[in-house]
Amino acid sequence: MAQFTYSRLSHLLRASGNKLSVSRTGTEVKPGPACHVQFTRCQRSVDSKALQERQKQQMAKGLPKQKPVAGVKQIIVVASGKGGVGKSTTAVNLALGLLANDPLKTVGLLDADVYGPSIPKLMNLKGNPELSDNNLMIPLVNYGVPCMSMGFLVDESAPIVWRGLMVMSAIERLLRQVDWGSLDYLVVDMPPGTGDVQLSISQNVPVAGAVIVSTPQDIALLDARRGAEMFKKVHVPVLGLVQNMSVFQCPNCQHQTHIFGSDGARQLADTLGVKLLGDVPLHLNIRETSDRGTPVVVSSPDSPEAEAYRKVASAVVQRLHEVNT
């Protein structure tokens, strides 16, 4: 069975980029003096309200039509405005928590962070995906969760040096040219920020809801708010916020310290009018199990840390039900 590699993906993306450039050049129209005069007359004859309405219609025509991913019932994106708040760890344990809460459900995991893929390390997966008879990439599987990541196509230390168009094309292929099978949930680990990838996914596929991850720290909450507002603008339901690293409990004396502040995400959720999905503590067990590629939900299922993630997963399912009804 053939394997899908980074070099093959790069070749396909460059080829599609060249075709796009040719098609744009072929349809370019050079404005002339007559066009300018006609446009000026039309602009003066139309009042401002009618012009704004026409602009909205033109913008709507230019937006891509959302197409579902074959075999996937609901897509959940896990996002953060800032890196380093534990978004990828939360995405992995959310996917495993959904599966732990209801083993009859099928859950997949997509790593949409092209520049800094973390899923291979967190899920303890290596190797190139093989190709099916239909020329689709077959996800790598661990802990019962099929996974796809740019990290499967490149060496662990190799940088991805791509412009935005190639990144968006890669995301499209990682979404649609993968044999996901039949999934109840596809959890997408988004890159930090509010850039091309977030817009591309939000506009091209029907996203059931977004989960925003933040620490209680003020500087992280500023960016978390931007992330939530972005999803609202592109009409993606914000399922709620996860307050990560909410409290540190000393393993010796059990004293609790709010290193990054207390209840910042809870207050932000109230301000935005969304739900706080849960609190996840700052705990050594989460860090150690993540580094080993044995996420805490599967390696320490009876621990309070695993319980916190399962509660978040339950809250996400409840919010999805509320949104869909």
Automatic annotation (TrEMBL):
CC cofactor: [4Fe-4S] cluster
Protein name as annotated: Iron-sulfur cluster transfer protein NUBPL
HAMAP family: Mrp_NBP35
Signal peptide: none
Keyword Secreted on entry: no
Family per similarity comment: Belongs to the Mrp/NBP35 ATP-binding proteins family.
SUPFAM superfamilies reported for this sequence: P-loop containing nucleoside triphosphate hydrolases
Localization per record: Mitochondrion
GO biological process, one term: mitochondrial respiratory chain complex I assembly
Iron-sulfur as UniProt keyword: yes
GO cellular component, one term: mitochondrial matrix
Source species, domain of life: Eukaryota
Function: Iron-sulfur cluster transfer protein involved in the assembly of the mitochondrial membrane respiratory chain NADH dehydrogenase (Complex I). May deliver one or more Fe-S clusters to complex I subunits.
Xref: PROSITE patterns: MRP (PS01215)
Keyword list, A-Z: 4Fe-4S, ATP-binding, Iron, Iron-sulfur, Metal-binding, Mitochondrion, Nucleotide-binding, Transit peptide
Molecular function in Gene Ontology: 4 iron, 4 sulfur cluster binding; ATP binding; ATP-dependent FeS chaperone activity; metal ion binding
